[in-house]
Amino acid sequence: MAKEPEKYVRKKIRKPRKPMTAEQKAAAVERLRLAREKKAKDNPPTYKNIHPDVVALDPEDPLSMHRVKEWIKAQREIASEERKNERANVKGAAARRCRAEGYARSMQRYLEDSVWTDGFYGEKASLPMNRVCTTLAYNKDGTPKRTYGVYYPDLGYVWGVSEERGGKPADMPEPESSLEDFL
What is the pTM (predicted TM-score) of this model? Predict the structure, then answer.
């Protein structure tokens, strides 16, 4: 049994629009702007896949949602370029592609759970991320363990570095309380 041929249906042809004058174009732009403002006011965006702590950050914050989204886009473009270079057998392209993809994945994860896991930040991951000690560890003799370049809230500065790099200020007095006061 042969299938019956389908009847040809002619597609509807749309007439091209008449070109707008400059005044009409300006009025249309203004109407569209007002409509977008009204929609944004009546129905603000809900970022369901972004952590509330990240959404709450000030737009000027280095790790604000909008900045990180721009960085993700830039890293994905770099990965795309390096993928092309990799096919062309350019030396080092595979490593650069993997780094760009991993960094973009890390930033996407930050948007979801508000924990920055990479050691660097910025559009090209060029700025080092500072480490902060949240819970102290102690040696057997009761003195706190310290790591070079880590910010300790109990001290109020980065341990082991110069004052110019965030270390202990020269005029800062020693703390009056000691570990024995807490034990």
Answer: 0.66
